[in-house]
Amino acid sequence: MNAKDVMTTEVVTVSPETTVQDLAKILSEKGISGAPVVDANQRLIGIVSEGDLLHRAETGTERRVQRRRSWWLESVAAEQELARDYVKAHGRTVADIMTREVISAEETTDLADLAMLLETKRVKRVPVVSGGKLVGIVSRANLVRALATTSSAPKIVADTDDRTIREQLLAELRRQQWANIWAADIMVRDKVVHLWFSADESDAERQAVRVAAENVAGVRKVEEHIVPAPVFPAF
């Protein structure tokens, strides 16, 4: 699935000339936490969110600066940051407070890449563009809804035998760096996967192997067997 398969196409947008007060009203009335900023040609030029309205002079919530001087306050970087904070608190239009370096995606962007963007960039939404123009937006909610429409069960393959199931599971585990289970600890009988784990193996690893087994086509059930951890003699 790609961005175009899950994106919201009816997007609430604002212009750079929109006042901060009007922006606050739009976010409140529409029940949204942010909006893309577009120009007269619907080209994406920025994005604004509730976070841009948190520290405002009108509500007395502007960032407070420590009165004591320090090397940090005397640095150029600090002065620039203080200047940006002032604009955020006193700017009158969206153009003053919006984020200009927008993280966006194309219609053909894979959902896995979108999920990675949302996670690594710590954003709640990613605008979708085509030829520079805004065509939609993908939020975390869109990805959750996409998951809700999928089937939770692996495909049932009528002619899958026990040997094929075992081979497919072993092949999947060999691709995973976390998998430390031995091939001898995996048996399949009547499409039921039996897994043997040492008592000292982590719950996370056991769960990951179980999930891998459950997702192999044809598997009816997965059973775990815990054996005592090996004791090595001390020399």
The count of strands amounts to 8
Query: Any idea what the CATH superfamily of the largest domain is called?
Result: CBS-domain
Query: What CATH first level of the largest domain would be assigned?
Result: Alpha Beta
The value of Rg in angstroms is 27 Å
The CATH topology of the largest domain turns out to be CBS-domain
Overall mean pLDDT? 86
Number of helices: 8
Ends: how far apart? Answer: 57 Å
Point out poorly predicted stretches. none
For the largest sheet, list the strands in their spatial order: 3-4-5
Q: What percent of residues adopt helix (DSSP H or I)?
A: 25-40%
Structural class: alpha/beta
Structure description:
It is a single chain. The protein has 235 residues and is of the alpha/beta class. Helices cover 33% and strands 19% of the residues. The protein has two domains: 3-148, CBS-domain (Roll); 162-227, GMP Synthetase, Chain A, domain 3 (2-Layer Sandwich), CATH 3.30.300.130. It contains eight helices and eight strands; from the N terminus they run ααββααβαββααββαβ. Strands 3-4-5 form a three-stranded mixed sheet. It has a three-stranded mixed sheet with strand order 6-7-8. Strands 1-2 form a two-stranded antiparallel ribbon. Strand 6 (186-189) and strand 7 (192-198) form a beta hairpin. The longest helix has 15 residues, at 76-90. It is elongated and about 70 Å long. The N and C termini lie far apart (57 Å). The relative contact order is 0.13. The mean pLDDT is 86.
